[in-house]
Specification:
Strand order of the largest sheet: 1-3-2
Number of helices: 3
Largest sheet: 3 strands, antiparallel
Distance between the termini: 49 Å
CATH class: Alpha Beta
Structural class: alpha+beta
CATH architecture: 2-Layer Sandwich
Helix content: 40-55%
CATH topology: Alpha-Beta Plaits
Number of strands: 3
Strand content: 15-25%
Order of helices and strands: EHEHEH
Length: 90
C-alpha cells in the first residue's frame, strides 16, 4: 500500500477514499482511529489515504481532481465569510 493523500481531517480523507473507490480503486484510510487518541491536540499528519501499488498511477489523477475541488470549495467559503465574524448579519 502506498500513500496517495495526507488528509487534514477525516472528512477530506473520506471524500478522497470515496472518489477512488468510485473509480474502481480500492482505498484504505490509515490512522483513522488515531485521532480519538490524540485528544484535544490537533491531529496533524496522522490520516492518510492509501492504495495498492498497482493503482498508484491512476489514483494520482483522481486525488488531484478531489484536491482541486476541495480548494475551490474552501475558496468559495472563504470569500463569503466576513472579516469580522461578529459583524455577520443575523
Amino acid at each position: 500500500m502506498h500513500t496517495v493523500y495526507r488528509a487534514e481531517n477525516l472528512f477530506d480523507a473520506h471524500l478522497v477514499k470515496d472518489a477512488l473507490e468510485a473509480g474502481g480503486i480500492p482505498a484504505f484510510i490509515a490512522g483513522e482511529y488515531l485521532t480519538g487518541g490524540v485528544g484535544q491536540l490537533p491531529a496533524m499528519d496522522y490520516i492518510a489515504v492509501m492504495v495498492p501499488a498497482s493503482s498508484l498511477a491512476e489514483a494520482g489523477g483522481i486525488v488531484a481532481e478531489v484536491e482541486a475541488r476541495l480548494a475551490e470549495a474552501r475558496q468559495a467559503i472563504g470569500d463569503e465569510l466576513p472579516d469580522d465574524p461578529l459583524a455577520a448579519p443575523c
